[in-house]
Amino acid sequence: xxxxxxxxxxxxxxxxxxxxxxxxxxxxxxxxxxxxxxxxxxxxxxxxxxxxxxxxxxxxxxxxxxxxxxxxxxxxxxxxxxxxxxxxxxxxxxxxxxxxxxxxxxxxxxxxxxxxxxxxxxxxxxxxxxxxxxxxxxxxxxxxxxxxxxxxxxxxxxxxxxxxxxxxxxxxxxxxxxxxxxxxxxxxxxxxxxxxxxxxxxxxxxxxxxxxxxxxxxxxxxxxxxxxxxxxxxxxxxxxxxxxxxxxxxxxxxxxxxxxxxxxxxxxxxxxxxxxxxxxxxxxxxxxxxxxxxxxxxxxxxxxxxxxxxxxxxxxxxxxxxxxxxxxxxxxxxxxxxxxxxxxxxxxxxxxxxxxxxxxxxxxxxxxxxxxxxxxxxxxxxxxxxxxxxxxxxxxxxxxxxxxxxxxxxxxxxxxxxxxxxxxxxxxxxxxxxxxxxxxxxxxxxxxxx
Length: 450
Description:
By secondary structure, the chain is mostly helical. The chain has helices at residues 2-18, 20-53, 58-71, 75-96, 99-108, 139-145, 148-158, 163-176, 180-199, 209-223, 227-255, 262-288, 295-432, 435-449, and strands spanning 56-57, 127-128. The chain has 2 domains: 53-94 and 124-254 and 267-292, no CATH class; 318-435. It is built from 14 helices and 2 strands. The chain has a two-stranded parallel sheet. It starts with a helix and ends with a helix.
């Protein structure tokens, strides 16, 4: 803001000499119109240059990086870390040299193979976002813009890393995170602790695994280096240097009076205004840039974890108290159980003796019952035989009675016949007893004798 105020004041001072205020306004409007046309034309030219140089898409690269970070496991994850680390180290070496040498090297190698197929020279590839525009980015900028580091970190929390992966991840932290080596070691140690704790975390009580992983992801995002801030700082340093050069040039022009025309002074003032405006826009953009959670959200997450931790601790204390009570109740129950067991043992002995006596009596009764059953069977057999003999006798008797009855009937008929015949004979006798018949008979007898 101070540079902008100085530039505007300088423009006003120049305008007081020759009505330059109106000219500045008209020229600024024309600059805006020309700038709009220049943006449209520049975008077309830039797109043609991107197509000619085979720039990579930022969005597609970010998508591939995040997918690989989440899906790779075991040896694939180790190889992926090695490739990424090699690329980041190479870009780090390039960043140590001059920006002109770096840009020249990037442009000469812009058509190199894919990152996955050629891991040795992916840092030579430039990436561009057609939607947002801006300057092309290298792999380091794209990697920081993606969630690949967060994804690989969550992968190691879910599946414990090997010693080699720990070493590779620590080196990657040095290239991608802020805070220094001590912070990086603390973060890595925390990741290992989280992995160990999460491996035994199966039953969710108050907080879910996904929410804890989101907290870890937000923490890593908050420590990441912001590539946009680095570019803004570089551009801001360049603009400050340019403004300093302008200020020195103005001082020199004041020493050499009459050697610079009003138009040149106007152009310098306008260039200074534009540089200050651009610097102000960069600083405002830097102010709104923020990795990870805001301090308020971070404080809320910390408070939430504290509340959950305190709640779980309280629940654990209550549960332990109940466990202690249950153990005392269990001890009392065991004592009662022992007492009852002794009583039951004595009772069992008594019952066993009683059962033995009853079993002996049962055996005796069974022996007697066996004898009785044998006697009963014999008696039943005798009874059956007696009944059979009775039945046979009755049958034979019935036959005899029937025969006798038949004979009786026959004799009755004979008696009746005899009686009838006797009656007839008696009648005839009575007939013959008539005196007349007797004398006649006697005479007949006498006659026959003669």
